[in-house]
Amino acid sequence: MMASHIVKPDTRNCKRPRELEPQMPDSPQLSSLGKSDSSFLESSGLFYKESLEKDLNDMSKEINLMLSTYAKILSTMESTHQKKATFGKRERLPCIAPLLTTVEETPQMVSARVRGHFPKWLSGYLLRIGPGKFEFGKDKYNHWFDGMALLHQFRIEKGTVTYRSKFLQSDTYKANSVHDRIVISEFGTLALPDPCKNVFERFMSKFELPAITDNTNVNYVRYKGDYYVSTETNFMNKVDIKTLEKTEKVDWSKFIAVNGATAHPHYDPDGTAYNMGNSYGLHGSCYNIIRVPPENVDLGETIHGAQVICSIASAERMKPSYYHSFGMTRNYIIFIEQPLKMNLWKIVTSRIRGKAFSSGISWEPQYNTRFHVVDKHTGQLLPGMYYSKPFVTFHQINAFEDQGCVVIDLCCQDDGRSLEVYQLQNLRKAGEGLDQVYNSVGRSFPRRFVLPLHVSLNDPEGENLSPLSYSSASAVKQADGKIWCSYENLHPEDLEEEGGVEFPQINYGQFSGKKYRFFYGCGFRHLVGDSLIKVDVVNKTLTIWREDGFYPSEPVFVPAPGTSEEDGGVILSAVITPDQNENNFLLVLDAKNFEELGRAEVPVQMPYGFHGTFVTI
Description:
The strands form nine sheets. Strands 3, 33, 34, 35, 36 and 37 form a six-stranded antiparallel sheet that branches. A six-stranded mixed sheet has the order 17-18-21-22-27-26, with no helix packed on it. The protein is built from twelve helices and 38 strands. The chain has one domain (114-616). The protein starts with a strand and ends with a strand. The protein is globular and about 65 Å long. Helix content is 17%, strand content 35%. It is an alpha+beta fold.
């Protein structure tokens, strides 16, 4: 177990010192050549010959010295390049297959053994969700994202902790259970035709529209005070957070013209929720911004009153971008259109082609990434055309407004092929095979982009339009009117040693959409999180908690009552291990110093999951 403070300046963007740059030495001999007078040559031929030989000899020495210096520079550059190319590679990673295998649910409450203490003021439910069942009968899922949703509940009250878990009783789960095989396709697994049908019926079934899964295994979300579990299809499942029972299935498309919505909505202080979802039609693909009112008008409502406030046309009609989340400030929605493309034709024909939906998603770095900014009050899309080099982001950290700019912080990867890597056969490997998988995955690092909102025709080209003195992120107007955005790294180099960071969380209730200093996430020195990290984005320092052989989940910040300090509270994380001789546990850290306050050990096997939330009792 370790909590360490790492304070190092970030020197990667420093220019190379002039003494390291190859420069031609000043050479009076070179400048003197050609200046000899012809009359002097006629009268002093022998002297000229000797002088010329001396000059050439001296010049040869200087050239050799220059070439030697240049060779050293090239050698240094090559060595540095190779170091960067191989930096972060790891060997002899422990096998984590037990964290990604089917477990039994624990529907009855189990009392946890508390070591240390949980603060008396901490009272509520830590709710988490993720895949927990990876096969039905002889059929097995291919991708981590495909597993059946398992709901977890840690109940904390007066220093005691209990645990329970239940499989979500979705229609998909029930159908698969009844038939004892995979009946409904998931992200990375194609459901095969019913083996009881004859050859002709099985062939014709390939041309039927595939059923859409309601296996909502990604996150808990809140609308109008009610809790739902969500994925990225058009279905959500409303749940009773006390019993973990499903109470209702909700279809977004029954309320607004969208074909799905993200599992990462944003919330205004009054409870108004914003989300994004795609729609597909004859005129192409659109990214839609959704607003859901904060309260129910009538008893029994779900997302009644939801409306699309803005539709953004996809850059490519049949190849919209895949996105997992978006940013929001007090006044704006920020959507990132990234070159991780969904080929709609491939997705629609996946069943005919005998391929999973995931086969229709591809990383296309020949395209740049674009930022769209929308006024969330009027629904107006701002005219600014903001672009950056290609990157992919799954989780935004925070966004805020300052001096006429939108500042958005994201966990970014330069290689968008990581979705392909999370096949279960890869995650369950051991030895060199596991090392190769890990070292092929792009790392995720926190970056800041600055988007100036009020760009005019009179603004100069080629100059940084960002007025923010505290950020090195730039926004440069180009001749075609586009704004080219370059990021600022929000971390020290030490984060590379931690495998980057993902699953970012902040003090959302008090600092979402505002200027902030801290965020929390998981370090990834393995294919799942193996540490908890507190990042100070102002001083660019890290504080780390790690315990060898244990794998913490997404950190959830819970503010202490009566404090306005940004890090005044605790961090909760479910920590699991593949070691059957050790217990999994719920960890509580002091958010200020990242020191462990206590842990609640539970003798129950748990798989590694995705997201969750804390609900105060």
